[in-house]
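Please go through this chain and its backbone structure tokens and walk me through the local backbone shapes. Keep your notes short.
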Amino acid sequence: MVLDVIKDSKLVIAPMAGITDPPFRKLCRDFGAKLCYTEMISAIGIVKGDKKSLNFTFKKNEHPIAVQIFGSDPDAMAYAAKHFESEGADMIDINFGCPVKKVAKQNAGAALARNLNLSESIIKKIRSAITIPLSIKIRLGWNGSEENYLEMCKIAENNGVNVLCLHPRYAIQMYAGKADWDKINAIRPVYTGIIIGSGDIKTAENITTTLNAFDVDAIMLGRGLWGNPWLLSEYLNRDRLSLHETILLHFNNMVDFHGEKKAATLFRKFISKYLRGLPNAQELRLAGNAMTSKRDLLDLLEDISGHCHTFK
């Protein structure tokens, strides 16, 4: 059961728009991850049969998988949740945390959490529509004067939410400043489900320290994994693949899913992250941003062969 996976593995892979597509999730699983979240998916898009929204989903044999949906219409959210349960999702996650403008202007994500009544209505509607576990991902609130994460925790407790993930920043902070992990310790008295913490986890030592210092059942890994899947293998004490091996593994995953031409274009946003720390990273990034084929990638790997000592 997915809830046991969370408690046993202590790690989950965050929903990240434009990042946690099926190829990236496969890479994370290759490095030891268990539960992965999809990119956030528009509930309205599912209702309308939007191809882009449907393509953000998962492969039938990809388990365990949590599908994150966003929106502000209770009926549409329930419809999307039920749709993904029928498609084989192991858990549905409601996005109450995304702070970006294009989501907030739809009264969704972190903006939705400003309206506690509507938030509770959506949770109730989805909970009654599905039988699989339900999770929510929240922030501290919209800003310091609208801190309402404990109210959201109480709503979750009273309406059958199985898993709660807190990113302890305010929405207006985006990802600036420091995540206030001390806030997480106030959740347990008002919420008895599984608690996941997220924010500023960049090293295996961060994972260990955070699990020991704060009252959470698991850690959600997000931006710290982008260009650094070794974060997983280091914490899990698995063999470390080289930079070359990792880049090729990720790229081949993308080719299998997207085809070579599209994969080469999409991989540009990943290659720049893999190149961080190399002596001639800026020059290599320029070459990476121009790649249009696997041959271009192989040429780039030849160029960086003398610098792989940076990644032991």
In short: The chain has two domains: 2-235, 243-310. Residues 307-312 have pLDDT under 50 and may be disordered. Residues 243-310 form a domain with the Non-ribosomal Peptide Synthetase Peptidyl Carrier Protein; Chain A fold (CATH 1.10.1200).
